Amino acid sequence: FVDRHHPSVHGGKSRDAFSLWSLFNNTSSKPGEKLLRSWFARPSLDLEVLSQRQESIAFVISRQELLPQWKTLAKKIKDVRGLRASFDRGGLLLADYKAALSTAACAIHMRDMLLAAEASAERLHVMARLASVGSTELAELSNMIFGIVDFEASGRKDERAAKHICVKENVHPQLDDLRQSCAGMQNVLTSTAQEERARLERHSLMPQYALDDQLYVVFITQLGFMLKMPMPEVRPEEAEYVERDFEAAGLALQFHEEGEGFFKTAKCASLDDK
Q1: What's the pLDDT band for 46 if we cut at 50, 70, 90?
Q2: Where are the strands (E) in the chain, listed by range?
Q3: CA distance 145 to 147
Q4: Backbone angles phi, psi at 161, to 5 degrees
């Protein structure tokens, strides 16, 4: 499994194109690809294990009529370890919860199809393992996620930002209280930005900012509420005068990045106190 690139008569871009791995890797999911790669990287010497793998592969190949549907389901099964790691870190990304739902539903469906397709009287090892995995837990997981996450509201969030989950109402009273207290926050921030814009225009600091969406109030953890607006293009000899104008207008620059300045103002400080 060398990643260095070089020309390949097989059309591949890496040394894998010349390997047995490239010939056998017809997996449909990332977990399946990782498992197959581990088999090639650390081959087993246990004859029983090798026999079980061969029997399982032979069984799947013998059901050609079901292979397309199995592959479609397998593609929707995500890396469970990666999802668990994200949840353990407190991840709230909408994509992770969608992936968990997809994985649970497709795993249940694929498990039932595989068990129903087995014709031999003596159950294969892989089938015994599948039968030992109860679908009840996966179904409960799906129902729990559906009962907590508001997917419709989560999908309506700002397209420019990473989508995090929105929790449904009546899941927990403390969350409902927080939702109610924050419900009017957007209106407060908008009106504050409009008031600050009008005040800065009176100080002649806003002529270059023609668009309303170029000045708004943001909240940053540990720094609180701040006014964000484009930084003016200033020649070195004018820097001192512009700094004085900002100070006279009550603008305390906290930091700037990518041409945007983040300022603390009296109104922002009052929002911090609230």
Answers
A1: very high
A2: 216-220, 224-230, 252-257, 260-264
A3: 5
A4: -110, 155
